[in-house]
Amino acid sequence: MSNNTNIACPCGNSTQHTALLYHTCCRPFHSNSLKAASPEHLMRSRYTAFVMKLYDYLIATHHPEYLHGLTANSLAQSPETHWLSLEIISSSGTDLQGQVEFQAWYKDDTSINAIHERSDFQCIEGEWLYTQGEQFDAIFPKRNQACLCGSGKKFKQCCL
Ligand SMILES: [Zn+2]
Ligand SMILES: [Zn+2]
């Protein structure tokens, strides 16, 4: 992954329909200069960390009691994933715990699919951490809806 921070942030966050750049979006979390203010921010920064293979960050933001032996090394050894986009479906919660439902779209040799998960987060001493998630089947866009890859084209004219 390039070190260029002047790219649109992989998490797809935008303000007033303008894509946020990595260095103003998820990078402050990755460089530890900012703590995620909400489960959704943490979720976005963790998706971007998957895209950029920042495995130490993924471990650091995963509640230690829920790691179950997961390490930065084991993450690095999992099969390569070609991530396409992150779709936040909903987020909710209180000051101490929250949930984010999302689809993380990816592509393999033959098809496109998504990890569709409702993730749980806990705030421990002011820091949001991922604990666990429940997974569901992917919900695909309809043919005439916007493509999941963020191209702005219709799904049927793009990745379908
Ligand atoms: Zn971002
Ligand atoms: Zn597409």
Question: What does this entry look like structurally?
Answer:
The protein is globular and about 45 Å long. The protein is 19% helix and 31% strand. The chain has helices at 27-30, 39-52, 55-60, 72-77, and strands at 14-15, 18-19, 82-93, 97-107, 112-124, 127-136. It has a 4-stranded antiparallel β-sheet, covered by helices on one side. It has a two-stranded antiparallel sheet with strand order 1-2. The chain is α+β, with helices and mostly antiparallel strands. It contains 4 helices and 6 strands. The chain has one domain (14-157): Nuclear Transport Factor 2, Chain: A, CATH 3.10.450. The protein starts with 13 loop residues before the first strand and ends in a 24-residue tail after the last strand. The structure holds zinc ion (ZN) (2 copies). One zinc ion is lined by residues 9, 11, 13, 25-26, 44, 48. The site of one zinc ion has 5 residues, from loops.
